[in-house]
Fold each of these.
Amino acid sequence: MYIDCQHLSIQYPIYNAQQRSLKRSLLSVAGGRLGQVGRTMTVNALNDISFRLDEGDRLALLGHNGSGKTTLLRALAGVYSPSAGQIKTSGRMSSLLDATLGMEPELTGIENIKLRSLLMGIPKQKLPSLIEDVIAFSELEEFISLPVRTYSSGMVLRLAFAICTAQPPEILLMDEWISVGDALFKDKVEHRLQQFTQQAAILVIATHDAHLAARIANRHLHLVKGRIAS
Amino acid sequence: MDSLSSEIKHSFTLFSLWRTLAWNDVLNRYRRSILGPFWITISMATTLLAMGPLYGSLFHLSLQDFLPHLCLGLIFWSLCTGVINESCTAFNDAAHFIRQIPLPFPLYILRVTWRQLIILLHNLTVVPIVLLIYPPDWSWSMLLLLPALLITLIFLSSVGLIAAIICTRYRDIAPIITSVMTLLFFVTPIIWQLSLLSTKQQYFARLNPFTHFIELLRGTTLGHCPALLEWLLTALFALAAALIAMTLISHTRKRIAYWI
């Protein structure tokens, strides 16, 4: 398994209400004086990013808000296709980019586990053991059979992390929301992440926390305005 | 083209995912209500009870002729308008999936279609009651409802996919589609019957694709075997819509995540 990212650039179109309307497009196709206004603004979210990760690599993405960390994670997940350059990945991927993924607030914890396991393509036979593992790890106890809308944000986070990592993926992509958890849970998360990488999985984690990055990661990538700084 | 066919295949292999999502959607709408999804059935029955006698007498038709016609017209129309209107927001509603996991886009339309199919099944429970009171000409050709439904679903989900892509990119299209569907309700033979029109008027009414789909679905359910032309036309519409939808998705699927 590997992630190979070569000269990746991502340009992000920004639409405001006016530019997105059909009228704008028609007018700009028609040409004339509105042509200039109709042109879409773009943001160069990532510029010429190259790196390669192999088995057992743990990469920390560091950088300020808006430096392109989340965009890079989404590109690695295959959500955003590159404007230039290319990304090659091999390995079963699991992404934790948004803690509420697939969480239906009206469904119970158990029902959400089932839904999310469908999303991740986990076979039905593995479901009972997965549910047990998730309940044990998330420590939600009797809350697991209550609707998720009754959970605190920390509890939702625990559930999401427990589900995504119950079936160890080969590549795990995580955004910085992990800092929502309390100290005890953070330790548990770090422990599980370390277990992972001992199994030669690849981890990519975006974070502000330089200490966390130093503890978990063996590789670091500083992003400044969408470029690699170091 | 190759990755496109794999995208469509992948959508269908994720059957249990979109089926679960659709079922949750229906449950969520009626959560904590006692009758649950059967509110769909009740509201359809109420509409029929109110509109049946009124419009029947306006058109000077006996309820024996009119009520089954109206009942099936309304039920199948609610399938058509449901799939197309709800497809407009299908991608935006699934933004939290789309931004995180690269799932094939037709999946979200299949979710909408399945959701509307569940609603259709609830509505259809009214039909046996109506048909027991006002019996049609029972015949084996009623089984043709299944292929008719299949053709209709291919047409609707293809149009739905086209609508979803365009509405995600251009936000003013969704209200236009909703208004057009409202307008189409009146120019499609749902309440009124084609036979009440002059030949020339019938010609215009048949320019509307939904006329053929409603006639096909209703005709088969009532045991009149629809003409071959009706089957050919609906199949042609379905095929054309599917081709347009596939061309459009193959050109846009790399951009859709940016448009959300």
Note: Chain A is about 35% helix and 25% strand.
Amino acid sequence: MTDTLAPSAIQGNTLEYPSSAPAVFGLAFPWLMSPPSYTDLPTYWSPRRDWVLSVTPQKEDMWGAAVAIASTRFAAHGYIIKDSQDSSRRVASSLQLLKGANGGEGWVPFALKVMRDLLTTDNGVFIRIRRQGDTTTPIRVKAAQPAIVSGALRQDFSEAAVTTSAPGSKITGLYHLDSLRCIRTGNLAYPLRFMPINGMQQILRWDQVLMYADQPSPRAELFGVGECAAGRAYKTIAKLAAMEQLVFENLTGGGANKLVFLQGINDPTLQAILKSGEADAQARGLVYYLGTILGAIPSDTPISMVEVKLKELLSNFIPKDERDNGYLIYANTIGVPVQSIQPLSGQGLGTGTQTLVLDDAAKGQGAMPAFIKWWEQTVSDRVLPATTELQFADENDMRDQKAHAEVQKLRADTRKVQIDSGEISPAMARQLAVDSEDLPQELVADDVTSGGQLSDDEKMTPERSSLSPASLALIQSAPTAPPKQAPGLATKDAADDDAAALLESELGWAKRLGKASLRA
Amino acid sequence: MPNPPAPLTWLIARLSKLIATATGALEADYPNGVGDWQQEVSRQLARYHGAAMLAGAEVDTLTPEMTTAVTTDLATQLRFLDKFALEMQDGDTWQAGWNSRANMYAGSIKTPYWQGNVDMLPLPAMPADGTSTCLTRCTCMWDVTKLAGEGNYDCTWLLGATDHCQICKQRAADWAPIRVRDGVVQ
């Protein structure tokens, strides 16, 4: 600590969670917040818990696969950046921001890291926003802590780096921050402390970081820490890991399954048999009997055997049922269709329709869909320019496109019926089409409902400026009345046709009678 | 109570006589001849609907708008006539009410007459158009006063000399007058 450092001007505390503080709180808080633990998972919540959760993909293979599937799905998911004023410059720079995330590393590695943190840490996801004109200054913290323990990290917190730049200045980059190195402070203005590998801790201002956690806790003392998918499925992960380990040991001969006492044979004889057997087995590449511990008891009686089983699955224990149930829990906690984790081929549910149904059902539930929604809204509102929006939509998914086109056609049909019935005019129909994004806003002269309705992933756009000459020409050519129906296409029945034909054939008589009546 | 216009009275009287003659002939030959009767009445309705529109508008030629209106009115009556003819074909004996029912078709030409008479204004109803309880027996009429400017009218629903249904009485109270300004009903 140097005396030349500027004192902190930050209002409020920027220390870490009460639960990880070294004082009595640090011991009492997780105990107060947690149910009894039946696992080796540290109690909820302390940074140490996230260290355990973050390595769960290495603990159980299928969980690791499920996390990888979800992460790669997010990373490979298509997204659209659109600008309400069709500014190609803004769209291009916004796209570049995402494509050049993590200092140019790119979108895919950035997204994989983000999703991994989301699924395997309660602390959640942290994304650093870098702005033009960022200037980092070291400061002396108010409540200096020479050395604190946060999870497994020990870092000095007598001084910290604070970055200053105008909150509205241009965003130049997005960086993923390691969740295990992030500490929520509960300070609304400076909500995060980041512990870099090198250098002093950084205190980040609200506009310099995006924070998210799956299932954030409503407890004020937790500062928004959540309950990640790995934590929710931890018992299942641990159970399946133990089960697979047992199967593995059974198959590879690792570990002892049973204890066998042989009576009537002495130990040297048994060792000699084993040795020759082992050599023979190794020669054949077999090590099967190693799971059994053989013990010789010398006696004069005929050879007999007593078995003591050391480990064995229960007789009514069905591993497949446990696996199926486990995979379902994985799918539900992450928010992916279960058949993404475990293909259903060969089972009763293994049809293409079932896949579609499950895929649809998985949309909007679980950690991943909720995160995508948050990501869309937050990036649109806090990262991209005011008129630019991010939307996760798989443009390459023909099923999505078909569904979109079908809904558009339904809306167009509805508008046609409304015009035909006289309920609305073609001009109103065009306005409705613009509102539902079936028609570009540029193609109506005056969007009378502009800004009147916004969905949760849209944002308020500035009033439209002047129209281009091309737009004006298109608007001027817009129909003002419903199209005239071609002869014979009108909705008529036989009586209309008969009446028209009859009138035409009797028109001469009608004229004569009309004149005669006027003379009467 | 105003008298009905003379041209309309003349047309209705002639058509009524023609229909009565045709119906009398059908009664004599019944159950044969229903098809011929329907054909004859249809032809007469077409002539007199067209004539009523021309007489009401006091013009020699039907405009496309008038043709459409007459066709619509005529088609409505032809549908009723079709049902009537089917009923007669299905019957065994001549019904006493059929003569009177057939005669009602003559009253249907009041609708095109008044449409022509009010210059095809988009008024909410026409006498005898079937929207009132009295159906084609309606004797009410429109009194249209043209005001200064294009498309400006005051239109009053006048009750006829005979008994009136409740709907017509209400119309006479509500539409006294109904204002049309720039061709639009106010």
Note: Chain B is about 55% helix and 10% strand.
Amino acid sequence: MKVLLVEDEAKIADFVRSGLTERGFDVEICSDGNSGYERAAAGGHDVVLLDIMLPGRDGLSILKDLRTAGLSTPVILLTARNELGDRVEGLNLGADDYIAKPFYVEELSARIQALLRRLSGDRNSRLQVGHLVLDRLERQVTCKGHAIELTSREFNLLEHLMRSAGRVLTRKQILEHVWGYDFDPSTNLVDVCIQRIRRKIEFIEPAGEAGSPIESVRGVGYRFRETT
Amino acid sequence: MTPRVPTFRLRMFLVTTLIVAAVLASVALVSGSTFYAYEIQRLDARLCAEGWRLAERPPRADEIDRFARDVAGKLRLQSVDQLLLERHEGGAGGEVVYGRWPREITLDQLAWSDAPVGSLPPGPGDPVATPAGVQPGATSEQGARRSCRIASLDTGDSGWRAARVLGPDGEGIVAANVAVIHAELWAALQRISLIAAPMALVFTALGAWLLSGLALRPVNRLRDAMKSVHERALDQRLPVGREDSEFCELIASYNEMLERLEASFNQASRFSADAAHELKTPLTILRGQIERAIPKAKDPELQQELAEVLDEVGRLASISRKLLLLSQADAGKLALLRTEADLSAMLNERLADAQMLELDATLAAEVEPGLRLQADEQLLGQVLNNVLGNAFRYTPPGGRIGVRARSTPAGVEVLFRNTVRELSPVERSRFFERFYRGDSARNRRADGHGLGLSLSRVIARAHGGDLTLEPGSEYEVVLKLTLPRSPGASA
């Protein structure tokens, strides 16, 4: 998966590159608007991550010219200044998604994957980690062939954990992804929800020595156990 | 009952009418007294003439009645009762007394004054007719000046005017009752006060009412224009149009004031926008680097600390995001991405969270199904998260939380109510204030900043609706969220 990141802030570009590389992306970086436009127009990327405030020319004008030139590479905007306005204008100009700074790399990665899945026509809507199989389209989860009934929140939380399998997610990260902005971070919604998912899974596959596939990382958050 | 506030128009009307009434009254007074003085002067002249006639050519005893009638006619008296005559023997001719002279008055007691020169008609044959035998000095003086002196006498029930003429042969005294003049004056005053004055007043009042209305028209236009400016944004200006120069100046001053207001408002708004934006880049870097460091940290304690720092960074990010949204909303630039949103589903999802939390509170929800509206789903979700989040957090154990959502002709209305420990009137009045926290010990907002409700209200208003704190007891918070179905309609 080739990702073009057009971002002038070197430190941001740096951790995004390392984070995405870790998750299996191949990241190319451009640090100003003009070279960013040239590289994007040259094509060959699976997704373009476009910062809006750039030296040279801004991200929205790059996006506009790319679309006018007929380039259909999916674009995700990284907005900072006028999140809502850029979101409206960017989507109108043909952006496929946007993510507001400051973002979690985990969230950015999830958005890129979701976007690519959507654009590839959802040929593979199934996600399997260990014995758990999650079907996004059917919104069904099965364990060893047995269906598990989950609420919408539980389903979204489980999907988020499974997609980030092997990595720790903090409660706040989970809360923001599943519940959205402004939900009281002091509630124990995440913990309660995870307890419920665990119980439902254990009903079918009792936790053995290894414990539940959803691991608690003390003081940090939760991690979905990767199968080895 | 509030006292009726007098309008400028009413005041103009009353004041003008009062002034005109006062002017009319003083005009009537001045003209009345002038008229009276003039009439008295004319009467004096006639009295002198008649007095002269009486002194010069006294009537014979059998002619007295006829003479008196003739004098009364010349003095324009209504009857001979209003006439008194007296003649003292001087030279030739006899003594004459006519009419009922008041007994208590002796002529010499009266304050006689000389009649104005010219009020006496030329005496027949004078001064040639001066008889011989009288002292030449006195004769010539009396004849030349034909002395006539005037006095007023008051008999208690009516006033009299008397003339005393000293002729060569005797002294003639004629007195006339001035009631006739009073009567004429009174009649004239009545004509003025009953017909002319009311008509003048009516016309003036009508004119004042119409004129003040006319004068207020540009003010009313201005008021309407100002109202429409207020409803929109600060960058609106009033059109100067074809108003009169006074109003042009007023409009110009108002526009200038708006300009200054807009400039300082924009500055403040830009400042918080810039500050929030400047925070975002370092926050993005911080968040990214901590996020990367957590899995690398082998020591669980270090991992835990990093996670805590990450959450704090998240809190900062949340504050700066809200500040930025608030400053954009203040500048009227909250860009909404409207899609068809299912409010019922959004509410039910959050109510299910409440059930999952197993709160120690009874939850009563009444959500009409299929409440759909054109709204920014992300921002609307934020409003619901905020309002419901507060309800979940602040409802004391054993309390009640109620949510009722229903459609209204214009859109939807959602009532959120929950019991609270106690909400003082001060806290109530500052409910939507930014960064305001109630009693910090008891009411500490867990995310440490009181921007959520303020932002929620701003979002509701950007949608054309509102979020209001409804009046209620101090142990209950009732928030009403109204939203129009589509951008065009108003809630």
Note: Chain A has a mean pLDDT of 89.
